[in-house]
Amino acid sequence: xxxxxxxxxxxxxxxxxxxxxxxxxxxxxxxxxxxxxxxxxxxxxxxxxxxxxxxxxxxxxxxxxxxxxxxxxxxxxxxxxxxxxxxxxxxxxxxxxxxxxxxxxxxxxxxxxxxxxxxxxxxxxxxxxxxxxxxxxxxxxxxxxxxxxxxxxxxxxxxxxxxxxxxxxxxxxxxxxxxxxxxxxxxxxxxxxxxxxxxxxxxxxxxxxxxxxxxxxxxxxxxxxxxxxxxxxxxxxxxxxxxxxxxxxxxxxxxxxxxxxxxxxxxxxxxxxxxxxxxxxxxxxxxxxxxxxxxxxxxxxxxxxx
Length: 306
Ligand code: GLY
Prior knowledge:
single chain; alpha+beta; 8-stranded mixed β-sheet; 8 helices; globular; binds glycine
């Protein structure tokens, strides 16, 4: 049986000439490393859940993406991290929000699914659970990088009430279908620069930013979380595939059109039960990658890259 892995490193205003050559090269290299990590699992006959968790953990540790180290900063200059995982066979799910000290939020989301009775933990309680089960802890400063401090300072200098007007969405995610035919999705983010008041976006909300159901598809989203929440994007794509019989592409396009109609932008990666995968985005670019058992392998950033 074949396998398919798709990853994203965020949708946004990624246009030729806007990214420095260094940032573009580092972004492509980071996406390639994440594909390598997920591919190693799937090519060895491993589970889709292990593959998406491995790919996302690589992107969390890479400061070029808005998740884990390099996360977008709150108005106070701290990192508050959100993540979720879901497996399609059982519809088991785990999610965390506003995590401050767990090195791998996606690992913690998975632990919530596998090692607690719960689906969604937030804030100090999520970090306490993480400590109790022995996951790696770091100081909040570990997540904070100079480029993200600069992003925050620029934003605060522009407008007291602004956030992410440059659409620097760098949320990371992965979806996979393994050789046994099972699906999984994982997503991780720092949210939006300048967030406050405990703001949480779509990423950790099961059915909004992250979803997997073996009867339909697995979905990981990136974009303006407030709009993705209001549309319930990930589950809406699956429902259209599963209940209306739409193709992945038609379903994803229809749901992103709903997001656009509300004023939001972003993208999604999707893989179906037959192993077909696809991506769509309404921003100029989306950091993305694909690998399959058939030997296809691609990393792309800009909208004109296919
Ligand atoms: N899509 C990520 C967020 O809005 O937090």
